[in-house]
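Input for the complex:
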Amino acid sequence: MAKKKDRWLFPTNTNNLRMILAQGLLASPDGFKKYYADALDLQPGWVPLYRNKIPRDVLEKCVSERKNLTQCIIEVNINGIGGTGKTYRDGEWGDVKIDDINALTPDSLYVLAPLPLSCFLKLLFKTDEDQKQFKDIIKQRANVILAGLKLQSTKQDQKLFNSSSTGEFEPELLTLQDSEKSLKPTDLTGKNGKPELPGIPNRTIVNYNTVYSFGGLLLNMFYFSKNGESTNQVYHWINASGDLSESVDKEIRFIGQHFKQPEREPAPLPPGEQIYYGLIDIAINSENFKQDIIDFLESDKWDEKIKPRVHGLAATLRNFEKIADKTVSEQFKEAETGLEKTLLMLFLREDSDALIDYKFQMDILNDHTITEELISQFAMVFGIRAKFIKSPGFIREFEGVQNYISHQMAAYAHLQLKSEVQFKAPPEPLTIMDMIKNNEFCKWFARTAKDETWLRTKITVPRGDYRLKIENNRIEITVDGIVKTPTAELIQEKYFAFMVNHKIKEHEKYFKKYKRLKQ
Amino acid sequence: MTERRFKLPGEEELNKDQDRILDLPENGQFLIVGGPGTGKSVVALLRAMKFHKNNNYVFLTYNHVLNSATKQLVNLDLTTLTIKSWFCKMYHHFTGEDVPEDQPYKYDYNGVIKKFQSLEMEPRSLHLIIDEGQDMPVKFYESLMHAGYENFFVVADQNQQITEENSSRQELMDILGIDRDDVIELTQNFRNSYPTALLASHFFTDPASPAPDLPPESKSALGTPILYEYEHFDDSVRMILREADRDDRNLIGVVVANNSKRDNYVNALLSMDVTLDNPHPRISTYLSKDKQDVTLDFTRGGVVVLNDRSIKGLEFDVVFIIVDGFQIFNNDIDGMKKRFYVMCSRAIKKLVLVKGKGYDGGIIQILPEDESVLKRQKGY
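Predicted:
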């Protein structure tokens, strides 16, 4: 008889589970904006996974913070995780290859946090009623999105909550919840600057704000790549799935590099880039964006040479907050630099949803006050500011997007940690512009959008004589030989003018069509 | 005009106190207290949505405008009524009679209680979710208990009492049988910015309860409310239209003291021709004599002109308080401060007080002189 497959389980409570789904990562407690004590407290920085059964005390810990909390379990796909984890046996921590864990005996495995949503198999509940309640509650939240995750509460699942096991190593582990014994940032650096804490697993700190901002940036760029090839290229460059052309605006390159080379310091930067650096830093870390931007610009830190320009920028923003006897378009026209326009947009609209809904007036598009690259810049900073958690839910609901971006965030965090842990990547979702590169899809998309003016058709005809016949409103060309299938080409400028105010909500429908046309 | 809906909260936007309320058991008596913008109505609404599937609840609001706004924004066929209309229907349903009155429009709750006692009412499982519960007298709750109701979820704020017959926090605790420790207090102001909350706190009058917490302060003092003094009436109207055009998703509340001011502003806002980025904003209004016939649309951006008595419980992205017309009578400064407290605390993003040159009405004496709390501006 075949051996029953092992199940790897992470116990928590439904409040934390909602946060995990909302933030897009199973993070350590410092990666939660709101956290209730659960198994993550046992070894902050590490995710404990239990094989087939969970010690009773750990389950109880998950609902210990207050009355009326509900236990639940995340079943994790251990085969989707590679690298090294930790096990605790005979009073000591030891390394273990995660790939080998199924063949070994330990009842638990500690994996360095964070874990992406893409390695979740199922969400398990103690009772049908708990499962039903969870489903009902998440309908009342803007950002708890299941994206195909399965909820389950079978008889077998229910037994997982009634464990009588206390766990072979439980007494030692549970004492680690005491805050004085928890790992603190100051504890982490030992001799020679290397992380060191004998007896328990080492960890370094993940800058979760940056990780979540990276997720927000990717989500926004995935969506805004609809605007044109240039934006699509920026998305793929940030996602490390493509290169950036030399001609792209230096501001875009600068913002992207902030995430691609996070160790960069602001000091040696030229003044203009120092402002961008501060802007991104505030977008990542601030809880009160507008106030902090004004404080930053009005500070005395600026060199005398650029001080008037920076303080002038602050004054413009202060005036913009007042009620002016001008339209917003007029104020955009008066703005002199891309930075100024980006800041105005950041002050005008509070989140990415609001940016997506913004209707750009044709005159500011026609006179290039607003360009595709400038909107890319808007989208980048809006995404960074919103982070994954406040990014538009409808983008996260596009097939495969939530899991993919969650995976990218986890990979980015582990890169910061210089950890060996890897996660199996889910398929990369295609952007609208990726799909438009397919000629048949491109034509279908234009017809569906009821606007073909942004397409031109190229016909390659064999050399030789041809005859032209003009009839009413059509021209008939006759050539010898066979004409190749006509190809559609995007007229970038017209396409952008059409797409910039066009909201894409039916990504699923487009992707299905694309798959059919590709077959 | 861009669509606007009740925005479901993000998981991280609910704090642990709100979580605690949302995790409360279904049955029992609960009292939630908190100042404006602390999310009382949000938790009440989420609780109603929880019971919606089984349709065993009623969500009760004090006035018709709030009732209409709630229904529209949730985009759910919520069972929601004003407290008084539900009470009348309920009483009629059980007794076949109209609610007895001891004065015109004033219910004789003792008579109601006597009637229910005589009928020996059975216990009922219906969940009563009552918003602005402080505006109803204790006898109202007593009547409901005699009618057999057992499940109460009451949200209240003593400093926003607008009626003569009302209940204090202690009275609500006593009648609902709730210990002091079991009352859940919401203290974090989610709605207002620091400068708006600071100005609102200037009008706080209740000596019995502490003023609500202010949001974190910032040195840039961005968003300090403005007292705008106009020379020509048209300037104030153009300013409102400009603000509405700035973001066509915003709902702008223009709050006035009386119907004559209401008519002035509605007509001027409808007819003024200004160059705008977006189409002319939608202008709407409501007259309290229309009762349940609320034609206001809270689901789209635009300008809503309302008397201050109708704005309780509502929130607007931007609030313009038209000071002209407000007048302190009989030296009732506390009464006027309460009205300004309610009006100011409606604003999410921006708050502007507007007055004609030379108008006073006794209001100037209650406004803070400190320009860091209320900036003065002439022209724009």
